[in-house]
Amino acid sequence: MQRIPSLCGALLLAACSTSVDGTAGKSATLDTPPPSAAVNYSVPGSSGPDDLARLAVRHHPSLAAARHRAERLAQEAPQARALPDPTLEVSAGSMAETAAGRTQAMGALKQPVPFPGKRREAGAAADREAAAARAEVAALELKLTAQVHAAWWDLYLAQQTIALTRESRSVLTAVREAVDARVAADQANQADQIRLSNELSLVDRDLAEAGRLRDTARARLNSLLNRPAGASLPTPGNASIPSPGTLEGLLARAQAEHPEVAAAEQRAAAFRHRLKRAELEKFPDFTAGVGGAAIADSGLSRVANGRDQVYAMLGIKIPLWQEPRRAMLREAREGMAETEAMLAATRSELRYRVEEAWFEARTAREVAELFDTRLVPDARQAYEVTLTGYSAGESSFNDLIETWRQHLAYRLQLARNRAQLGKATATLRAAAGIR
To answer: On the chain, which terminus has fewer CB atoms closer than 10 Å, C or N?
Structure first.
């Protein structure tokens, strides 16, 4: 006991000379990591939308931030379950004279002990919050996957538009030979040539616009992949679009397994644990400790023996002020009501998203099949018949241009329907919680 004052002084000096990060004599600094930059990693040439979505999930900084947030929240549970730090108290100086001798120093070690159950419920609430954050990571992965699919199908549509427009330009160039031949034979006038030239100019305009849409889609897709805007990407092909299932099955899956539902359920559970923790606040916390006093060997009393004192102590925190505790109970109850309402709202929103995407995908699939099996072949045949008739002088130039335009419009509409089907299916899978 006589060494307590010198030991306490040594500990205080060590604490004053050591910085927050444990480095003596240096000021504490926070190392701020540099902002994440786009990474120009390679993408295989055979990559489809699913492959690109996996790359986006791996590299996108928003997902990295969400994962770090989940890990950060996971570290709150051990803190909530831990006992408060003990307290060491040391007293020295001119102190009281006892029958055993003069008191030279006193010391006590005290440990606060919360009422049983408080730390358990606080830790369980923190665990639920961390689980909600992990579910939000999964929800963000679904959202990012749907965005990658949408950008991929936008790029597919732009590439198809460019290819079809270039093909149509080649067709018009071939038609020019027939027009020139008829004009040379005095079977048509120069107005046909001028109109054909205008049509070629309009095609060039459409090519320029399609190129802009292609560049925009590439920039969007590279942004989702966390790559530079000008990074090379594979050319989208006619990827298969499988049906995700029945509407009833998708709705049931979304209501039961979607990460957004899981996150809302975990937050509701966290507030239930907070309510139990608040209900335990009416019970007192404790402080247990052991103390002692160093007694001098000589004293004024004749019976002084210099015997040191050792004693135990037990303290109780009196829960006197009840208004803060009642407010804690009200807060927890309101939190439960809030999260349960948010859970109902999440399920309602998911039902709408699933139904909207399912009907959109069904319509796009039916229309695409109609154009692919009937309208496009019929328009092609009508154009070929009209071209033959124009060459033979049996059809007018207006009929030729109109049939050509219709054939091109139907082929472009087929490409748009396929892109719409792909985007709607990706949205449907994300709404149903299908990875």
So the answer is: C
CB of 78 closer than 8 Å to CB of 272: no
**Contact (Cβ atoms closer than 8 angstroms) between residue 207 and residue 162:** yes
pLDDT class of 306 with cuts at 50, 70, 90 = low
Euclidean distance between CA atoms 207 and 200, whole angstroms:
11
Tokens matching residue 100: 């055993």
Confidence of residue 125 (pLDDT cuts 50, 70, 90): very high
Q: DSSP per residue over 144-202, as a string?
A: HHHHHHHHHHHHHHHHHHHHHHHHHHHHHHHHHHHHHHHHHTTSS-HHHHHHHHHHHHH
Name the residue type at position 59.
H
Give residue 215's identity as a one-letter amino acid code: D
- Per the CB < 8 A criterion, the answer to whether 305 and 101 are in contact is yes
Class of domain 131-283+324-432: mainly alpha
Cα gap 384→165, rounded to integer Å: 18
- Burial (Cβ within 10 Å: 0-12, 13-18, ≥19) of residue 264: buried
pLDDT in tens, 257-291: 999 999 999 999 999 999 999 999 999 999 999 99
pLDDT exceeds cutoff 60 at 20: no
C-alpha–C-alpha distance, residues 95 and 116, integer Å: 38
Higher per-residue confidence, 78 vs 16: 78
What b/e sequence results for 391-430 when a residue is b if at least 16 CB atoms lie within 10 Å of its CB, and e otherwise? Answer: beeebebebbbebbebbbebbbbbbbbbbbbbbbbbbbbb
How far apart (Å, rounded) are the C-alpha atoms in residues 237 and 253?
30
Bridge partners (DSSP) listed for residue 309: 293
Cβ atoms within 10 A of the Cβ of 270, count? 23
Task: Supply the pLDDT for residue 405.
Answer: 86
Beta strands (DSSP E) in 76-118 are 87-92, 97-98, 101-113
The reported pTM is 0.81
d(CA 148, CA 227): 13
What's the start-to-end Cα distance of the chain, in Å? 66
